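Pasting as-is:
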Amino acid sequence: MKVRHLFLVGLTLMLGACASNQQKEVDDAPRLPAKDPNVALFEEQNYKLYKQSVTQMYRSMKLPAINYDFDSIRPPEYAYPLLDKVATLMKEKKNIHLILEGHSDVLGSDEYNYWLSGSRAAALKSYLVSRGVEADRIRIHAYGNTRPITLDNSSDGRLANRRVDMKLTKRVWNSVY
């Protein structure tokens, strides 16, 4: 009877140890965050910058990025009021220059992504020039997919990487480039 009782206790301990090992394997499995922290931070900063007035833009010298639909060079509809504020600022403050940095997601060839990112920045420049900003005060740089915000290849991550960053500067071009 003692042997049988010891056998059952030993068997119970072994099964319990196996079950706890299986539970440990499940708990140790890596979990993806609900949202990439870089994307969340980018969205939060972009939202705050988008709400700025022309005066606040001049004080902060920061502008939000404009995100694009997949394979599109046409600025999204939400960007036009922002671009109008940027044009107003640049017409009022003649010492301000603008740098437009185009980016793309990882889908497509490197050559196509460089062309796409440059075309997105050029479309913004064209719109600003049509609103009265001098073309020589705007510079364009195309980076393709070489400067991503996130390596997350989900649809949200790719959307965050399809953007044109706008940077204001008071420097004269010869000191910048």
